[in-house]
Every structure is written in structure tokens, then in C-alpha cells.
Design a protein that fits this description.
Elements lengths: L3 H10 L2 H6 L22 E2 L30 H7 L2 H17 L4 E2 L23 H16 L4 E7 L12 E3 L2 H8 L1 H7 L6 E4 L3 E2 L2 E2 L4 H11 L5 E4 L8 H6 L18 H8 L5 H17 L15 H14 L1 E5 L13 E5 L24 H9 L4 E5 L10 H15 L4 E7 L20 H11 L3 E6 L7 H5 L3 E5 L6 H9 L21 H4 L8 E3 L8 H6 L17 E10 L3 E9 L5 E12 L9 E10 L4 E8 L6 E3 L4 E3 L4 E9 L2 E9 L7
Parallel strand pairs: 1-2, 2-3, 3-5, 4-6, 4-15, 5-8, 10-11, 10-12, 12-13, 13-14
Antiparallel strand pairs: 6-7, 9-14, 16-17, 17-20, 18-19, 18-23, 21-22, 23-24
Helix pairs in contact: 1-11, 3-12, 4-5, 4-12, 5-7, 12-17, 13-17, 14-15
The structure holds beta-D-glucopyranose (BGC).
Amino acid sequence: MISINKLQELIEAMTLEEKVNMLHGNGIFETKGIKRLNIPPLVMSDGPMGVRNEFTKDSWIPKNTTDDYVSYFLSNTALAATWNPALAYTFGQDLGSESRSRGKNIILAPGINIIRSPLCGRNFEYMSEDPYLTKKMALPIINGIQENDVAACLKHFVVNNQETNRLTVNIEVNDQALEEIYFPAFKAALTEGHCYSVMGAYNKLRDEYCCESKFLLQEVLKDRWKFDGVVISDWGACHSTKKAALNGLDIEMSVTTDYDEYYFGSNLYDLVSAGEISESTINDKILRVLILMNNINMLDGSQQKGQRNCHKHQEDILQAAQESIVLLSNRNNFLPLNTDLFKSIAIIGDNGNLQHSNGGGSAAIKALYEHTPLAGISMYLGNSKKLTYVQGYTSDVDATDEVAFNLRQEALRIVEGHDIIIFIGGLNHDFDTEGRDRTNYQLPYQQDLLIKELAKVNENIVAINISGSAVDLSALENHSKALIQTWYNGMEGGLALAHVLFGQVNPSGKLPFTIAKNLNDYSSHSTADNPYQDTIHYHEGIYVGYRHFDSNNINPLYPFGHGLSYTTFDYSDLSIQQDQEIIVSLYITNNGNCQGKEVVQLYSSAIASKGNRPDKELKGFKKVSLKPTEKQKVTFEMSYEDFAYYNQDSASWLIEPTTINILIGSSSRDIRLEKSFLIPENVIK
Ligand code: BGC
């Protein structure tokens, strides 16, 4: 590490031209270093599901070499569905190590925008509709990444919740929603998590582009949150020189190769030379960049080298993928499938045999390998069973109806002669993708019709939905004996699924978002502006996800936090001790005959509040592992601040002297224990 004085000396030794070159792209994924001062360029890469393929320095043409094959990590939604921060930490460590092994200094991850609408194309890159779950999972990822001498770069600050017109759309949202829903994960990641960089979003907030918003970058990030790291523009998200430079943007990245023409190129040089932007403004940006470089040991040659494609990473990915799978329904304990009781399985559905790692936009990677569900199930069963695969439906957009009909007929012929049918459908990266949103909530490719017809011939159907977003699962629910939600689940996703299907692993994933019965049940749609409008008003304010469903008594198909197990858990003995802190404790017992993991969820509900507060909010969760009959104590240490809300009138966070109901549940709608306590007047500052 180099001392801060030395960093200041380095700045003094730089020419203005050298400084400016450090503040904008000089390659599509790098800035310029200063050779004579031993300052290397900052080299960056996407992304959230693994280190992106290598491009030539000055174009978007892939290098097409073989040394950029990497481990394919699970998507953020999948990771969030584990509700296991320890797995998020390991994920971060492995991703950081792979990034270093590819020579990267900044990895453009994690994506932590709130999942506001199920139709947003990039939901799979984000975590949850809930800010608390997002924050609790993002922090360990950042720690893990940065321990490898790589800077994490949070994206996209902020309210980047739709892909439609993402480059220009203006978002109007009230302060309470910003403070309670859209800011908390960013704030925690930058303050508690010490994330070294953050990416400004493409869109506008309140008529200002995020990358030149004084409110967002200067007032919120740098003044209020005391963020001392680097603000990087999304690629092409900077729209001005003076405004962006004065309002807090530090580095401009873009998509073209005329680097000198960037807003932070020769224009910036000219404005500083003319005295319109002070050199101290530039020096502040350079100091931030140098601090980041110093934090990741770039300046003294001691930066770690990292490792990729090792067995450890593959095993960690398998472990996380297993814990991310959500068992949505299981009629008469149809799952796990007992291999002694059947002789043949038919796997039906395009997603059974489709690889996903190479799609989705900037999140796409070159996976060293990817086990599809078909590969995973074949590996697991070997030759012990008759295993047949048919496509059933096609995701080929050019396919005629005739083709779709023939595939369906083939599937119908197959199912009759098999004991168990595993239907594997859902979305793919033609839908869960950067740059566009889905246009409806339905399963594509007539999958509803297919499963309905299959069920008429053979009812023994396990349905698997692969997606990064909520999608209408009513038909899969109605025509299957068990339904599983899985994800773009990394290179071991197929094997992880097999382990859950056949009971080697007891499922323990929980939904990080609500799956509604109808699109209009989501507040982002019931009150929505047309996504093509120039300005989108977030009419629903803080009522995003389950906050809306629960406050308005709308029954979802599957609620936030839902996920079944092959065992059952008993919750008992809730107690609350109140002093300087609030200690909530309870016991949980595994009642079944197999080991299992349960996510104990703590929600709070403010009774008789004078404020605008939702029916309930997630304030804590713990994932516990229990052997059969084992009983464990689960404790949550809470502070009074945890129960504060943002009051628009006073423009401040308030702790109300009110009764708080503590709800302990297995999901947001499966509350097992309740107890209340009173917030005394004397804790209110
Ligand atoms: C995306 C970012 C990504 C960047 C670089 C942009 O289009 O919005 O998430 O990191 O490209 O590829």
C-alpha cells in the first residue's frame, strides 16, 4: 500500500493531459495509465455471471481465443434465492479470483436494482423486490470480490428498473420510495460494504441524467453517504462535460472508440485549461481513482493473481445452485422421485437441453461448460433408467406453427410410455435480456397448451420453470404434481436440479420476488404508465412487490419468501427482550425424517402507525440447517432504528412510539409466530 501523501505527490507529478486520460475510456473496457509514473490502466470487465469474454482493446469484436473460458456463476436472482449470505461471500471470492486471473481490476457487478416489474429484461441480473434481502446478499459478494484485489462496481445507480427506452427514460419517484426501496442496498454497499466503485445508470431521475445528477452523485453519494470511491458512467450514459464533471461523475466510459471525443476527453481538457472547471475538481477524481487502485494493490505490484476454472469454483457453484432451487408445490409429496419406484423418465421441453450462459447481453459469458437439466439428470441416473428427451416446444422464433404442432404431437406420443414426465420450460435469454423488456406475463411458445395436453395423457408430471423473472405459472401449477422454480443457475445448474429431483439434496431456496396470478396484480402494472412514455411515474411509491400484495390483500400465486422442503419445520417459543436493543428469539425443530434447511424470516408490522407504512416488511432472516428431530434456537438482534420509516413531510427517518408486531414465518404469507412490543418514547431522538 502507498501512503496518501505519496498519492498526492503522484497527482502533483501528473500533467493535465495525463489526468484527463485517466478519467475516460481509452479502450472499450479500460482507461489510460501513466507509464512514466508506474500507474497502470484500469482494466474492467462485465459481469455478474462470470468474467465476460475478451474483446480486442478497441472494438466490440470478440478475440475468439480460448483463454477466456470461465466458470459460469449463477445469476443474481438465483443467488438471492439461496437466502444464504455465506454462499454469496463464496460467490464473490470465486468471481473476484476469476477476474484477477483474467487481469481485471474492476468487475462490473453486482447488479442490485430493485425488481419492480416482472417484465424487466434484466431482472435476472438483479436480486429481489426487497431492499433488505438485496442488501444482505450484496454485501458479502462485494467483500468476497474485493478481498481478491478487484474492485466491485455496483450497478446501476439508480431506478434502472426497465429496459424499454433505458437510455432516455425519466423516472419520477417520491423520496420515501427512494429512501426505503431504491437506495438502501446501494447505501449499505457503499458505506458498510465499502464497495470501491459504482456505475451511474443510463436513465434520468427527476429530469436529470443519473450520470450528471447533482442530487444523486454529489448530494446523496458523496456528501451524505461520504462515498470516497469512484463513480463510473454506464457505457454511453454520460451526456455532458461540465455538468457531469462538476456534479460528481469520475470516469466516463462509452461504447465508441473515438476516445478523445468523449465528454471527458479533449473537451474536459479544454474546460479545465480555460478555468471553467477547476483543476482541484479533476484532482479529486484522480485521487479517488488512485485510492481505488491502492486499495486493490495495483500501485505497488503486489496485486493478487487469482485463479479460474478450478474444481473449487465448480463445487461452490454446485453448492449454491442446489440451495437456490425453489420447490413451489409438491402434491402428496410427489417429490423427491424414488428411483426404486419407476423405470422410465421422459424429459420434455426446450429448456431441458438449452444452454443459457451465452445469452442475456453484457452478462453473457464463455462458459467452460454448462450442464443442462438433461445432462445433469443423465449424469445422475446413468444407465439405470430408460431416459427419453423430446423438445416438446421450440424457442426458434422462425419455426412455423406446423413445427410447433409436430413437436407437441411427438411429446404426446412419448409421454404415454413413460412412468415419470419432467417438463422443463420457462423463459430464456431472448426474454431475460439486456436492452428490452418482456411484453407480457405469459409463458412463451404455447407451453401452457403443451403441459395441459401432456397432463391428459400422463398425470405424473414434475414441472420445472427456468427463468430470471416472475412469469405466469398457473398452467404449470394446475397440470403438474410438483412444480420447481429454477434459474440461470450456473455451469452446474443441471446437476443441482437432478440432486433436488431425486432427493440427494433437500430444496431450501425461497422466492426473492412475488409470483402473481396476473400481471395487473403487480403495483408496477396496476398503476402503471405505458413503458414507452418519456416519463414513468412510480405511482405505487413504496408499495413494490409483497409490500403491495400484502397491504392490498391481493393473493399471489406464490408469495415472496415461499419455498417448500422435503421435511417440515415447527416454529415455537417466540420471545422478545427489550432493552437498548431488541432481542427476538424462537426455536425451530425439524419434524420430518430427513435433514433440511429452513429460512426463518422476520417481518415487522407497525400497528396504528401515523405514517405511510406497508402491511409488513422483511427485517431479518436466518438460514438454519437441521437434522431430523433437531431443535435449534434462532436469535435476531435488532435496533430501534431498524423499525424507522422515512417521513416525507419532515424529510427524515422517524422512529415512531408505536406497537411493532414481530411476525416470524416460513414465507411472507406463512407466518407461524407473532408477538408485539412497544417502542418507548425515550428511544426516539
Ligand atoms: C450495461 C452495463 C454494462 C456495460 C458494459 C451497458 O450496456 O448497462 O451493465 O456493464 O454495458 O458492458
